[in-house]
Amino acid sequence: MTATVGVNLLWLVPGVVGGSEVSTITTLHAIAENHPDDLRYVLFALGPFADAHPELADFFDVEVLPLSGRLKGLRVAAEQSWLIAQARRHQVDVMHHMGGTMPLAGGPPAVLSIHDLQPFQHPENFHPLKRAWLARAVPRSLRRARLVLTPSEWVRQTVIEHFDASPAVVRTVHHGVPPLPDPAPASEVRARHGIDGRFVLYPAITYPHKDHLTLVRAFSRLGPDHRDVSLVLTGGHGPAETEVLDEVAALGLGDRVRRLGRIPLPDLVALLDEADVVAVPSRYEGFGVPLVEAMSRGRPLVACEATAVPEVVGDGALLVAPAAVAEWAAALDRLLGDDELCRAMGERGRRRAASFSPGANAAATVAAHREVLG
């Protein structure tokens, strides 16, 4: 007999929710590739999601809520009413809420994914209304969920400690990171973005916790042997954008820092392959897909010794304390001057990245669905 698993994606506004969109889509694709015969999946999604990922309709039933998701109040209200009604109509046996919250009441037995607890640990980065909603919704969702999945052991422990949750209910299921596409021609990418010679790469939206400021300040302290090196910053414009650009100007780095913004993925892969060092000073990561992507390309990686980062990179990166500008400068200087270390780190990184397979992630996710069904 086939059971029905619903997947609540009403939180997922394409291009807005960041790495959680990438990890969620990867999980769904991996489930589709190894579709279990005993389970039928139904996705409940917003109109923009269905438009952005039409290929998923080839593998799953998709029910579309005709909202953009930009008005969060409407989306939350629909989750309390439309989603529950659709679950009844489709006779959903278990619902996987992949966005960290679930309806306050009603609905079938649930699996809940929590990507991180940043709104609780760094509330200053979030709007007061969002903080108030999450302060109510997340604890209630945790109490009602049959199983809670987190992308790292670090997030698992923070959930258990912060909410006094049962360790038996909270499980670590590492994200799966698929192979990156083929890179665009390196010479064309360099010419298109005005990049010459050696460079350090940081791919991240300018959110405050991504801590571009520490990297910019460390870069300004590089020794005389590395004055030819550029700093390349990709990723969308976030709340700290102006502050980062002002710091670049104040340190007189305007001719050595390239701020590219969002670029096509094949261009980013080419820059990963060309970068002399990939630097990720982010102080807060529930997992950190860009870390795995950099390691998968065999790049020398320096990352922040905080949150889930050490768990994810293992021995595939040089770890530096958060916001320690002098230490970051020394780490960059070391990697830029030691080819043998960079080669060894690249080999370790490839091995580490291979452990985060989409297939393993999908198998663990499906196992959670079956456990709740049982």
Structure overview:
Strand 11, helix 12 and strand 12 (301-304) form a beta-alpha-beta unit. Helix content is 43%, strand content 16%. Helix 9 packs across helix 14 (325-336). The strands form 2 sheets. It has a 7-stranded parallel beta sheet with strand order 3-2-1-4-5-6-7, with helices on both faces. It is an alpha/beta fold. The chain starts with a strand and ends with a helix. It has 2 domains: 3-176 and 357-373, Glycogen Phosphorylase B (Rossmann fold, 3-Layer(aba) Sandwich); 186-353, Glycogen Phosphorylase B (Rossmann fold). The mean pLDDT is 94.
Biggest pleated-sheet summary:
7 strands, parallel
Question: Total helix count?
Answer: 16
- CATH domain class of the largest domain: Alpha Beta
**CATH homologous superfamily grouping of the largest domain:** Glycogen Phosphorylase B
Order of helices and strands: EHEHEHHEEHHEHEHEHEHEHEHEHEHHH
Helix content: 40-55%
Looking at this protein, list some descriptive labels.
Rossmann fold, alpha/beta, 13 strands, six-stranded parallel sheet, 16 helices, elongated, seven-stranded parallel sheet, 374 residues, single chain
